[in-house]
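Exam prep: given the inputs below (a chain plus S-adenosylmethionine), describe the expected output before reading on.
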Amino acid sequence: MTQAAPHQRDLAGESWDPGQYLKFSDHRLRPALDLMGRIPLENPEAVFDLGCGSGNVTRLLADRWPDADVAGMDNSPEMLAQAASTASRVRWLEGDLADWQPDRTPSILYSNAVIQWVPDHHELVPRIWEMLPSGGCLAVQAPLSWDMRSHQLMRETLDNGGAGGETIGSTELRTAVGNRWVQDPDFYYDMLAPDADHLDVWTTEYQHVLTGDDAVLEWVTGTGLRPILNGLEDGEREVYLDEYRRRLNNEYPKRADGVTLYPFRRLFFVAVRK
Ligand SMILES: C[S@@+](CC[C@H](N)C(=O)[O-])C[C@H]1O[C@@H](n2cnc3c(N)ncnc32)[C@H](O)[C@@H]1O
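Solution:
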């Protein structure tokens, strides 16, 4: 059977597992709230949560702006089903951010932990920015994980994690996971500044305090490791996971009190159009 390239499978929203992602919902909520807290609009009419996932954050957007029409869009039917299973006034919309168009003029386009799954930010960011009218706000958070040891080890283990130091998986897989999609902060600043009235770009490194065995592996299994797990054959996946787990546990040892500290850097930008 021909398999789609790993990144395409992810872009199609395949195999998002709401349960795995929600295991860490407390840690993942904090950046979402930090982003929401910097949006300077008082009375938006229409708020869209782009890549809303299981809708936890979308419902908070609806609470913050009770008079706004609030919609959550996502390309994963599993995530949208989970979102719709909790009663709320939010509209749930299926769509792919790569070509999505809003069904009404947005006041706020909010996106937490999504654009790292969407390629070509040269095209994506100006396109969604231009959907906003004057006074509209774009608010985005994305992990800056490319240079983190956990993510370097992900790629290195594909390159040399076999029992004799050989590569694991296909060339296509290694090429796909070698694409860096989230850029440095100045890339987004330069793109937005010419048409922004207000522009706030910042990074934060959180120290996530994780519990349990293989804590960092558990964390990345819900997000960044998915393209690799989806792209490996069954036998390869076990070899890869054994070696990646070993390397991760060396890099992020459990502390005396049993917790694992996981430093995680994130990029934020909030821009209001002139
Ligand atoms: C890490 S989760 C974040 C969910 C939510 N924003 C939150 O903060 O909890 C990433 C979400 O992005 C969605 N996603 C990934 N690629 C997408 C795309 N091209 N278009 C729309 N949604 C996408 C996934 O289905 C998933 O629900």
